[in-house]
Every structure is written in C-alpha cells, then in structure tokens.
Specification:
With 333 residues, the chain is of the alpha+beta class. The strands form three sheets. A five-stranded antiparallel β-sheet has the order 7-6-5-10-11. The two termini are 27 Å apart. The mean pLDDT is 89.
Length: 333
Amino acid sequence: MSKLKFLWKKFRSTDTRKIKQAAQRISKKTGRNSGLIYLDILKCIVKYGTGFVDYEGFEMYDMSEQERRDFLTIGKNNQLIIELNDPKYRDYFEDKIKFNEKFDAFVKREWMVLDGSNKPEFGEFLKRNKTLIVKPVDESCGNGIEKVSYEEGMDADALYDSLYSRQCILAEEAVVQSKEMDLLCTSSVNTVRLVTIYNSDDDVSVVAGAIRMGREGNYVDNFNHGGLAVIIDVADGVSVTDGYDKDRNTYKTVPEIGTVLKGFQCPMWDDCTALVKEAAKVVPQIRYVAWDVAVSKDHGPLLIEGNSYPGQDVTQYPKLGLGTYKVIRDAIA
C-alpha cells in the first residue's frame, strides 16, 4: 500500500466529530486555536498512531516531537502486540481458567471452576476459605467480579446456582494483602502492574511499572472503577509520581487514608520482579505482557492475571516525560 493510500485509510477510519469536540475542549482549556489543534491531532494520528483520547488525556499538545516519539500511543501499542505476541497463544491470557491452569504455581492460592455439577465441592471450598473472589471468564477491566463471604447457615447451593446462572464460574481464594499495601486502600486488593519483554529465558526485562489502588469501599482497584495509580521506578520499586485517576486528576495523598503517594515503596520489590520474570518464561510466544501482582500477607507476591494486550494508559506519565515506547524498543533490541 502506498503511503498516500495508507494515510487516506487512516484518516477515513477516524471519528472526525469526536476529534473536533476534543479540539474544542483543549482550545477552551489552553486558549489555543481549535482549528490548529484539530490539525495537530490528525498529524499525530498519522505520524504517531495516536488516538484522540491519548492526545487529550496525555496532553500531547504540550509535548515536543521527541516526547511524542517516546510516548507509547494506542497505535504503537497495537503494533508491538502484532510484532511480539503470537495470537495462537493468547488464550492462555484471555481465558481466565486457562490462565490459572497454566500459571497455577504463580497464582499461589486455591481456586475452582463451577461446572454445574460440583455444588458440594463449592460448599466445602467456601467454608474452607471464608471469602472468595468470583469472576466471569469473558469480562475484563474488573467488570462482573464479585466478592462473597461465608456466613454460618448460609445456603451455599443457592449461591452456587446464582453465580452459575450469571456465568461467574471462576472462584478464587481471596488474597489477604500485606500491611504495606493496606496503606493505599483497605477494601481492595491493590496490585502492582509490571510490563515485561521476553527475548529469551536469560533475557527478560521489566520495562514499566505502576501500583493501582481502589477507593475505600470498593474492592476493585481498576482505573475503570474509580481507582488511582502511581508510576514506579522499575529499578527500585519506589513511586515517582503523585497519584492519578483515569481522567489524569492528581492526588498527593490517598483521599480516604492520607498516605503520601509519591515516594511510596512497593513492598517485596525484588520478589515482585523475580516473579514476573519467571512467569514470562511460561508462554514465550507471548513476549509482551502486563502482569498484575498482589503482595499477599501469607504468600508474598502472586499473580492475579496477565494481559497479552497491555494498555498504554496506566504505566505512563508524559507530563513528567515518563513515556515507555523507547524503553520497550530498547529492551527488544
């Protein structure tokens, strides 16, 4: 395909109405000409694979061209996934049951699948673990996850039927997180997002990291459910930013608790990175993975899940020049 045809196809696939709306919002915020902003968004879509959400949310209108090159946009992210991740092996990450089977040694907790015929086993499982996290196998971003707890005299069979009817069929022993992670949110299991690049068993790089936390009263730490995040330096596990939410509002402290976020030390950092580097070797055909790690009280770091389609929003903070594209490319090279 010629470059001209490629640019035309790229342009036709964009939602120009939403781009104009984004340009108008940015113009109102910055006082700059909305027409020039609109043209700059189109340029970034073509040149850097930017989505208009990237452009606005990460304030690309204030970036230098070098910063734009170093920033991981949605287009660059998609290209990395095509380049590094064999689609024949993505089921190990996209199917939660297959993930737990394949990475059982890294999950480090009891789990079971509700198959429609194992009610007695579920009842014993619930009594034994007291609190469970139950997930649908075909949802993402924390959607559909439920937390259930055992109470004396409860009807475990009725609970089973309710969960099974809604296809919440993967039940896991709830993680009890370390006291350090409780400083971020006590109601959610706060996870460490670590991105790895696999080149060989002797060459696995941790290229980006963040800590995600829920808000008090919510048991999910995901961005899409009001959670916060901080970027961490992968050299030592110390956070280098204030907290931020999906809309890039910033927080110096955890609103409900008061913990200072910049400078927070991820507990058991060396163990966290060692865990994901070993996990990256299990399915080497998927070379680019974002892992969600919980630091548990009893088992140390353990895997919650792995993502063969890593997002680009949580682990970057372009306002501080913390883009990850160059780091990822250097790791591949």
